[in-house]
Write a structure and sequence with these properties.
By secondary structure, the chain is an alpha/beta fold. It folds into 2 domains: 152 residues, no CATH class; 218 residues, Rossmann fold. α1 packs across α2 and α4 packs across α5. The radius of gyration is 23 Å and the shape is globular. The N and C termini lie far apart (66 Å).
Length: 381
């Protein structure tokens, strides 16, 4: 177990250890106590707030009820006053999310080497764990109940899939791969006129949904990239099931593949904030690394007269995290011009939730597909 983080806890016959699992890269707790069906919600919540983890030895369903009770206690705490600016509200919201994850992540569940849970009334989570942690047959481990429930939920989403109306099919997301539940950006790619049907690059393929839309629209050859092995596996499975695997070549790469294409599509994370964990890389683009990388490399990968499609929400602008002038300057500095833009309003429930701390920014949000061309190519007679 020396290659992995370990969790240590006290037992009657001396300290015991097991492999610690955390897809969010949370370090193992330094203080651990044994908890069971006699542990009250008040006691569990107090210990969790103090940074003491509870390794559960009771009934699994009782552990779920305890987690729900701890959640209710957390929600009773008065919210901090929303800051004067949207950015203050965003920072307070992230702080609250971080505290919530840290506190509720203190209730721990043991896993055997085959991913069975050695507790009464425990569900079968073997397939859900194998999809995220890899093949069974490893050493026993410990995971937070909150993460385990996330794995179970992701497994159900993977089985059920997300309906994509423009494809008339479902896309099945993997755990940690950005799910296309917000379909407006997919609609933009489906309706914007194609500059060519010969070839396209899909930068940051994710689930493969945009490659599938381009293939359905008749693009003959698509080269799709991602640096996340889980995303590449997810895209491969989706594209194969949809029958587009012969049109789409998947490549492990940071941004661009070699060569040029008349169409290069990229949907980077929309918020330029630091991810709090590895699985947040699909949501947060720290210092706009992917956005700037795409813009600055686009000209060298566009065929003469070709278009780069940047799909980006202005949510960060409404939060005060960047300005429209900054974006336009970044486009100009990359040697690009804006040939056109398609806009769409979000349809997700939070956009209409007045109780959401970020409601003002969500209500004003617009998602855009920016059609970009290289300056030199655009000015040729």
């Amino acid at each position: 177990m020396t290659n992995f983080p370990t969790l240590t806890w006290p037992e009657a016959d001396g300290p015991q250890s097991a492999r610690w699992r955390s897809e969010a890269a949370v370090p193992p707790a330094k203080r651990v106590v044994i908890a069971d069906d006699r542990t009250t919600a008040d006691a569990a919540y107090r210990l969790a707030c103090e940074g003491t983890a509870l390794l559960w030895r009771g009934d699994f369903q009782n552990a779920r009820q305890l987690l729900q009770a701890m959640t209710r206690r957390l929600e009773r705490k008065p919210r901090k006053q929303v800051g004067e600016t949207p950015l203050d509200a965003f920072n307070l919201h992230r702080q609250a999310q971080s505290q919530r994850a840290r506190t509720l992540g203190m209730l721990l569940i043991p896993l055997e080497g085959d991913y069975t849970i050695p507790l009464r009334r425990a569900p079968n989570v073997q397939q859900a764990c194998e999809e995220v942690y890899g093949p069974a047959g490893q050493e026993p481990s410990v995971v937070s109940l909150r993460e385990l429930l996330g794995l179970i939920g992701a497994h159900e989403w993977r089985k059920k899939g997300v309906e994509i109306p423009v494809l008339q099919e479902r896309i099945h997301p993997y755990y940690g791969v950005f799910s296309p539940v917000r379909g407006e950006y997919v609609d933009l790619v489906a309706r914007t006129p194609l500059p060519s049907v010969e070839k396209a690059f899909d930068i940051g393929v994710g689930t493969g949904v945009l490659s599938a839309v381009l293939a359905k629209r008749g693009v003959k050859r698509i080269v799709a990239t991602d640096q996340d092995p889980r995303a590449l596996a997810c895209a491969k499975e989706n594209l194969t099931r949809l029958g587009y695997d012969s049109q789409v070549e998947l490549i492990a790469a940071d941004l661009f593949p070699e060569g040029r294409a008349p169409l290069v599509v990229c949907n980077p994370p929309w918020v330029p904030a630091r991810p709090a964990s590895p699985i947040e890389n699909a949501v947060y683009d720290y210092e706009s690394r992917m956005l700037l990388g795409f813009l600055n490399g686009l000209g060298a990968h566009l065929s003469p007269g070709g278009e780069g499609w940047l799909i980006l929400s202005d949510f960060a602008e409404h939060l005060g995290m960047r300005t429209r002038d900054w974006l336009l300057a970044a486009i100009d500095n990359a040697g690009l011009i804006v040939a056109g833009r398609e806009d769409i309003k979000p349809r997700h429930p939070k956009a209409a939730d007045a109780d959401d701390p970020l409601h003002a920014a969500r209500a004003a949000e617009v998602t855009s597909l920016w059609r970009l061309k290289a300056k030199r190519a655009a000015t040729k007679p």
